[in-house]
Amino acid sequence: MIKTELCELLGIEYPIIQGGMAWVADAELAAAVSEAGGLGLIAAANAPPDWVRNEIKKARSLTKKQFGINIMLLSPYTDQVAALAVEEAVPVITTGAGSPAKYMKDWINAGIKVLPVVASCALAKRMQRMGASAVIAEGGESGGHIGELTTMALVPQVVDSIQIPVVAAGGIADGRGVAAALVLGAAGVQVGTRFLVATECTIHENYKKKILAAEDIDTMVTGRRLGHPVRALKNPFMRSFAEKEKDENVTLEELENYGVGGLRKAAREGDMEWGCVMAGQICGLVKKEEPAKDIITSMFEEAEAILKGACGRWIR
Ligand code: TUI
Questions:
Q1: What are the φ and ψ backbone dihedral angles of 69, each rounded to 5 degrees?
Q2: Global confidence as pTM
Q3: Dihedral sign, CA of 206, 207, 209, 214?
Q4: What distance in Å separates the CA atoms of residue 253 and residue 263, rounded to the nearest whole number?
Q5: From the alpha carbon of 101, which atom of ligand 1 is closest?
Q6: Which ligand 1 atom is at minimum distance from the Cα of 97?
Q7: Tell me: the pLDDT tens digits for 264-305?
């Protein structure tokens, strides 16, 4: 069994966290991942606090195990969701798309373990200083909102810059990715794209089919001009967004408004043409819909075999 300090920290069997994917990670997925021995997350995304509270209640009815919530810091409801997490005594918070500095004290005083996503060593150090339990170092291979560095470059530099555990994210979808993350010094992994096709993932069938058919070069990045680049599958929506981004006559506000609602359209309505089908670059490895339990156990069995010596073939 692969056991790391992340297992003790979060009270989980396998050192894996499910990505807090907006409009995707709901109570059903979070509960399934936690039941399977990882840490499931409910993504607060841009959702109003009532939705988040309801999903927490639902997840608690589906599993006795712990799960966390992901707070997306660009949400207009961030302040309310931050307070709700304390009221609901959520055990773990992960954050994304910004610095959670202004909320850290309240969360930590409430006994919540905070694992911010960081895209640089500077933010990792700041988060350690502010009392984070661990950080998630997410490379730009990920789907959704991304940072500049790759996982391969980011993870070892973050590992060397802080003393708390580092979770690797971005481009990890099988046992090879898990093994590589551990070799880079990570204490565990966060996985998003592969859980899109978990049986318990409630996204539209069209989204799942699209992911299963996607190949290595099928994603692209837009939104750099807005300061929050987003990786998603190439489609008419992403291509037209890229065109508008290049057009100097299109204002930042117009561009921002053009993107609003795109992910919901893809994940919930199944619009694969004009929705924003967020996915990571590793989508080409994701070929089968299966229960979260099978995803997790196969990833860790494979990683264990690799770390036990399958790499011996290189050593003479
Ligand atoms: O947050 C994510 N992925 C997301 S959020 C999201 S919802 C959304 N939709 C449209 C536009 C924008 C967001 C979809 N996917 N991943 C975690 C993540 N955080 N990746 C990168 C970062 C990050 C980047 C810079 C975190 C902090 C940061 O620096 C902030 C600072 O102040 O230093």
A1: -125, 150
A2: 0.96
A3: positive
A4: 18
A5: 32
A6: 19
A7: 999 999 999 999 999 999 999 999 999 999 999 999 999 999
